Amino acid sequence: MSADFLAALRSRFPQAADRASADHPAVNVPLADVVAVLKFLRDEHGFDLLMDVTAIDWAEGANPRFTVVYHLLSTTRSGSYVRVAAPCGGNDEAPVAPSVTSLWPGANWHERECYDMFGIRFEGHPDLRRILMWEGYPYHPLRKDFPLAGIETELPGADVVEETGTKVVAAPMAGGPFVAASGEINLSEAEPRAKDESWSDRVARPDQTPLRQVKE
Amino acid sequence: MAAEHTFPDSAARLAAGAATVPDEFQPEKMSLSMGPSHPSTHGVLRLQLEIDGETVTKADPVIGYLHRGDEKIAENMTYNQFVPYTDRLDYLAPLANNMAYAIAVERLAGVKVPPRCEAIRVITAEMARISAHLMGLGAFGLDVGAWTVLLYSLEEREKLYKLFEELTGARFTTSYTRIGGVTRDIPEGWLGRVGAFCDQFLPILEETLRLLTRNKIFMDRTVGVGVISKADALAYGLTGPNLRGSGVGLDLRKDKPYSGYENYEFDVPVGTSGDCYDRYLVRGEEMRQSVRIIRQVIARFPEGAWHATDARRIFAPPKDKVLTSMEELIQNFMIVTEGPQIPAGEVYFEAENPKGVLGFYIVSKGGGVPYRLKIRSPSFCNLSIVPKVCTGCLISDVVAVLGSLDFVMGECDR
Questions:
Q1: Interchain contact, B77 vs A78, CB within 8 Å
Q2: A28, A92, A111, A213: which has the highest count of C-beta atoms within 10 A?
């Protein structure tokens, strides 16, 4: 079912490599070929719906740290999918990827979300603004180094802040439903607790004020 | 269906009108913020409009007011713990979300659930579709001034909620599925009550739709308004009734069947012109088709286990065994503390939800917690076409367009 377009893709783009996948056909392509590969799949193999654009952060130290992932669906080949993944360029602080808004205008919001959550700059995007967080928010929350609890941040609108005295504060995590870390849980520490260990009821908060003194 | 007909593109009409006026006489534009708390924005959507009199010249949706960081949360809890968060995506059809999420994780784990479990999921998903469409229909009517429809549809939805409560223990936030099954089997006599609901629902549905379908005011407000062409619908990744209203017959229940949908007969309604009225017609017909599916499920409801029986590290054992047998006690402990053990890999699964295609992309490094979980939400994609559709509309048409797109902000903002 899937072999025909994958074979055609590989003969057209020899750089494309198979991506391990248990469900849909998947390829890894170099960043420079993303737009051409997606255009090829759309125009010559009927993958007319761009379902999703997202990214994975492989955590600090990984090379490449960010991967962009595209999922295409075909309305004409009775619902077959294909997954295209590419490692991001640029550096860890400002990864870059090409925009596919020229192929699908619907990619606009997906890429804005990716930029908002991971800080990936999509080159050629007509309007790369934050979409879920507010304009001027200083972090990219889905990066692995962003703590689950959040980080204390000023709110936009100086007049409102002055009037109400509100700001974004980190959430108390201790005793919450969150578990340690994915795939590497130490059984002796399997008690559900905060993943963000920068502060808890035993460890002082980063600003050095103890949250709660525990008497041993 | 009627012969294909096209309506003039409102944006093109606007541009043509503006071109006839010399630059120095171009009207002054006014900026209008619609929402985030406006009755027509169905939650906390804000539209930043630029208007020239009554005509919208630019529309920029501002979203994120309901952003809770579900994807970040998912990376920090076990697979089963995340089920309640899926309730709160499209909170008008939590059962359908539960099912989509569970199937995604099961595909990754390679777990196959027995036919009875699939049938339970199909019947709950179709009931969720009816309840979501009822709400969408009522709210759409309300948006364009037909108040009565909501009274009819909410009453029917209430009956469904009674059935949901009996099945899951909750009316709204059902959290019904678990990885590898559901929380409990259907109660005694429940199928009969669902069947009885269907029998009395169809005449009431006809009566409710009759309030709108040939209603002169309703047609004036919706026919030819908010037209989305086939090409635009595909380009913007629209799915669900919004895509089918534009004439693309994509329905994943047919095209990529899951959970045994291939065993049931149903039709996929498709619109012709892609206006607000067509989207309404598609939703109306989908409810009839859902009743058809529910009746077929009831007619041949499979016997047997209602959860995966060969997934000892994924689905928790029954409680009586946990309390009496050491082996099951350990299994239960491991599943609760470390989560269902899912192998490394990645999966992308999409289900045909009431609002459109809800997708989960899960990357696992093994263990009980996903490494990355992306939610592809239909409302997010459906809303991304608003700047295009609303340009050139009247302000009152914006309300009709939003009502016909039938989005839920909980899912859009995640």
A1: no
A2: A111
Total length of chain A: 216
The per-residue pLDDT for range B91-103, each reduced to its tens digit, is 889 999 999 999 9
Cis upstream peptide for A64 (omega within 30°): yes
**CB spacing of B107 vs A23 below 8 angstroms:** yes
Can you tell me the distance from the alpha carbon of B61 to that of B385, in angstroms, rounded to the nearest whole number? 10
A77 occurs within a structural domain: yes
Q: What is the domain count for chain A?
A: 2
Given a cut of 70, whether residue A133 has pLDDT beyond it is yes
Claim to verify: residue A158 and residue A51 sit in the same structural domain: no
- Distance between CA B119 and CA B253 in Å, rounded? 14
User: For position A42, which CATH number holds?
Assistant: 3.30.460.80
What CA–CA distance (Å, rounded) separates B293 from B124?
11
**If you count residue pairs, one on A and one on B, with CB atoms under 8 Å apart, how many are there?**
139
Domain carrying residue A158: 147-216
Counting Cβ atoms within 10 Å, is residue B214 exposed (0-12), middle (13-18) or buried (19+)?
exposed
pTM of the model as a whole: 0.85
pLDDT digit string, tens, across residues B342-379: 888 899 999 999 999 999 999 988 888 888 999 999 99
Residue B134's alpha-carbon distances to A150, B131, B221, B225, in angstroms, are: 38, 5, 20, 22
The Cα B77–Cα B315 span in angstroms is 16
Name the residue type at position A39: K
Residue A174 and residue A111 in one domain: no
Residues of B in contact with A191 (CB under 8 A): 337
Cβ contact B257:B121 at 8 Å: no
* Token pair in block for residue B1: 């269906």
Q: Rounded to a whole number, what is the distance in Å from the CA of A41 to chain B's nearest CA? A: 14
CA distance B127 to B98: 13
Which are the contacts of B287, defined by CB distance < 8 A and separation ≥ 6? B129, B130, B133, B134, B205
Which residue out of A48, A54, A193 would a mutagenesis test of the B interface target, given it has the greatest number of B Cβ atoms within 10 Å? A54
For the cut 50, the answer to whether the pLDDT of residue A190 exceeds it is no
* Identity of the residue numbered B352: E
Q: Which domains does chain B have, with CATH numbers?
A: 70-376 (1.10.645.10)
CA distance linking residue B180 with residue B183, whole number of Å: 10
**pLDDT score for B97:** 93
Cβ separation of B237 and A50 shorter than 8 Å?
yes
Indicate if the pLDDT at residue B294 is higher than 90.
Answer: yes
| pLDDT over 70 (residue A187) | no
| Under 8 Å between Cβ of B353 and B93 | yes
- Please list every residue in chain B whose beta carbon sits closer than 8 Å to the beta carbon of residue A22: 107-108, 110, 345-347
Which residue shows structure tokens 């799949």? Answer: A41
pLDDT at B21: 76
User: What is the C-alpha to C-alpha distance for residues B393 and B399, in angstroms, rounded to an integer?
Assistant: 10
User: How sure is the predictor about B114, in pLDDT bands with cuts at 50, 70 and 90?
Assistant: very high
